[in-house]
Sequence to fold (155 residues):
Amino acid sequence: ILCNLAMIGVQLIPIYFWEQHMKPEQEVIRFYVAFFCLIFILSEIELYKGLNNWIHRGVIYTFVGVISLNQRVDMLATGLLNKKGANVTLSETWDELWASIIIEVTSYWMIVMGCLYVLMGLLCMKSIRKRLVSDYQKRLEEFKETKHEKKYKKK
Fold:
């Protein structure tokens, strides 16, 4: 979830600071990547069931990370990350290098998460997770029942 929140920030913050200098297709791609990250968050907290297959989820995570890396290279090539191109006055501590590093780290983080999902999907780890969650829920129910029985025995 943190990886996706970081990626949403990396995608949407540049739109605010460099909107005038950004091409419309760059903005659209940034909104798409942020939208995918929102879908990923909903999948992680199990509110969206469309990405249940971990291999598919991993491939899309990796794709989003590669797109973000490509955007970083484009932003550096066009000088979009420097202070002079910003719509607002950036502080004196703003550094084009650090902004680039943050984007790069977030992108690689997303790629690594995607590779881990693909690997776990190939190793059928989802069935192990399901079994562990099921066991936990059974133990939780047993605990609630014993707690409930003790409560009535005291009365």
